[in-house]
Structures are given as C-alpha cells and as structure tokens.
Amino acid sequence: MKKPIFIKDTPIDEKRIAWIETVVTRLMRKSTPTTKALITPYPISNCVIGESVSGEILRYMFACRGKINKGLLVLDKKPSKAVAITVTIKNSLGGESRSYVVSAKEMLVEPNIEVFSRDQLIISLDPGEETITEAWVSFLWLPHMQDVDIKKYLIDELDKIDVPEE
User: Fold this and answer.
1) Cβ of 113: how many Cβ atoms within 10 Å?
2) CA distance 84 to 102
3) Residue 153: closest CA among 33, 28, 40
4) Element spanning 141, H or E
5) CB–CB of 118/53 below 8 Å?
6) Where are the domains of the chain?
7) Per-residue confidence at 159, pLDDT binned at 50, 70, 90?
8) DSSP string for residues in 85-142
C-alpha cells in the first residue's frame, strides 16, 4: 500500500518540503515552453557556359566565420571519362584544397570546411579530355552563430507570426 504524502493533522517536516520542492522543480523543467528556430545557410552559386568550360568556375570571399556544408555540381551531360572538381580555400595561412572525381551528370559533396573572415573560395573544373559546355555549381554556407542576427521573441509573439504549413 502506498504511503500517503500528507497525513491528516500532522505537521509537515523539512524532508517532505524538500521532496515537494524537488517534484515542483522537475515539473517546471518539463513545462517550460520551447521553440525551434531555423538558421538558413547562404547559397553561393554560379553557372559557366561556353564551348569548353574549364578552370575556375566560381570565386567567393567570406565576410565572417562559418562552415561550408554542402556543394552541388551539375554538368550539361554525363561525362564519358571522369572530370575533376577542386574546392580550394585560400587565406593568410595558405589554405586548404579538396578534389573530387565526377563521373555523373550531377554530384553532391559535403566538404564541411570551416571558413573565416577574408577566406577565399575557388572552385575549379578540370574536364581532362572531356568537353563540357555548361557547368552549374552551388554551395551552402552557414555563418557562425556569433555573426548571426539574433532576434528575441516571447513565445506568445512567435505564435502570432504567420508561417505557412507544408
């Protein structure tokens, strides 16, 4: 049989008060209203069209710290032989470079490269013997939290914002 918390006509001791405070604290933690916010990454993109596309196809400089999460390359046709794409970050320390082999019409890469203010992104295409006439390239860059505008809203104010449902 369960022991009653409060027995009629008995004083409440310190042990029971501490237990009640613990229960109330746990309930408050669970009842705190929370919400989620989306920080959308910035797209960096370019398209190069010509008789024979090769070399640098995108240049970009970062104004603040962040991270390059994803990149997509779309070619005009599926190459018969492998095509190389190089992602280079140039900075005062020298930089970093990563190469990928593309054997399909489109390719998604996830370089996850940290970038800093004044870093320069250079995307180069080396088609080898292949003739590429059109190359689309797009990367997603997410700025560091210190450089993001943070707006504070009360939960009631967020409920009033009209957001379309999917």
Assistant:
1) 20
2) 6
3) 33
4) strand 134-143
5) no
6) 42-147
7) low
8) EEEEEE-TT--EEEEEEE-SSEEEE---EEE-TT-EEEEEEE-TT---SEEEEEEEEE
In angstroms, the CA 74 to CA 48 distance is: 11
C-alpha–C-alpha distance, residues 39 and 42, integer Å: 9
Amino acid making up residue 120: Q
The CATH topology of domain 42-147 is: Jelly Rolls (2.60.120)
Neighbouring residues of 91: CB distance < 8 A, sequence distance ≥ 6: 116, 118, 119, 120
d(CA 114, CA 111): 9
What is the sign, positive or negative, of the torsion defined by CA atoms of 112, 113, 116, 118? negative
Q: Where is pLDDT greater, at 5 or 45?
A: 45
Length of the chain counted residue by residue: 166
Residues 137-146 have pLDDT tens digits of 999 999 887 7
Q: Rounded to the nearest 10 degrees, how much is the dihedral formed by the CA atoms of 115, 82, 137, 106?
A: -120
Looking at the DSSP assignment, which residues form a beta bridge with residue 67?
Answer: 114, 142
* Amino acid code (one letter) for 37: A
CA distance 65 to 63: 7
Residue 4: both structure tokens together: 């009653």
Check whether 135 has a pLDDT greater than 70. Answer: yes
Average pLDDT for residues 59-69, to the nearest whole number? 92
